[in-house]
Amino acid sequence: MELFKLKNPVKHYPWGSIKWLPELLGHEPDGQPWAELWMGIHSEGESQTSDGIPIRQLVVEPLPFLFKVLAAAQILSIQAHPTVEQAQEGFKREEAAHIALTSPDRNYKDPNHKPEIICALSPFRALCGFRDPLEIASLMSLFSTEAASKPVYSVIQKLFLCTGIQDFFESLLMLSTQPHDLNLLYEYLQSCVSLLMHKEPTYAHVWQLCAQCAKQYPEDPLFLAPLYLNVIDIEPGEALYIPAGVLHAYVYGLGIELMANSDNVLRCGLTHKRIDRAELFKVVQFSPFKPAIIHPTEAGFYQNPSHDFSLCVQHGTGEQVSFPFSRGPAFFIVTNGVLTTLIDGRSSQWCRGESAFIPQASSHIKVAGTFTVYIAGLACENIG
Hints:
single chain; 384 residues; alpha+beta; Jelly Rolls; 3 domains; 8-stranded antiparallel sheet; 9 helices; 18 strands
């Protein structure tokens, strides 16, 4: 039984933080945004052992999950992920059309779904799932204050006349083809934020986030996303599970992310990347959804419905205890303190930011020390 220390690929996406991941990993910031650390065998970013051996060579069967650390200093694109059936059909279709995997016109980079769980390492904010239609109408009504001019009110009124979430969303997206109306809405938002903060302080976080989105993407009508998507704040140690078809965007924070082994993303806004609206509308579920905040069980597991993965957190307090996964491959990353692993009389120490791959977990693995470690393994371990 062996543990392999990892060298993991880092994704330098523009929305990443220049300091959070380097600090966790013990590196000096280099001025680049460090957005994601990947631990897994996905073709877009595969981990290696410290000796340079690809993890793929150490597994008997393909891993069903991809483990990440995500550092969002700016809002990510609003997006949704397909079901496995949608991913298989879309991947087959794009392969038949000979669209290169690296092409910006590619929607499906693999034939897999991408349910995911995000667990906060810092205070973390997300936009996730459509609000109830009555709540959307109420927020839109509060948004249209007496400061709204007749032309602006006319634009907002068109959205009021929509029937249902999908109709509302389609009408909002149509504003991207009506630059005059969109500019009126943008200028109105900029001018009324202070008034809204004063009149409706309960929703101060909503008005501020709308203004933040508009500042980054003034030509995208989805800067109003906080009015129709749930704004959810979670504290360190809390998590959210996001199934297929749910619109979401991570706004700010450092977190552990675990998902099915896929990189399939259908974007719909707050991005400069390509948006395939027709494909997006096949995937999005136009119904209210607000994810529950998940807390770890006594055993440290974050219970969720995924058949692809389990996420567990372990807090060491000095005494020797068993590793929480008893079978299958597993990854871990130490986020605080020093972890000592003991296998067959051999001990190894793992410091903050270090990660490892275990080809075959076992209850014979013992851990000790004062630490916090996050562990990804197979779904059959997803028990309390």
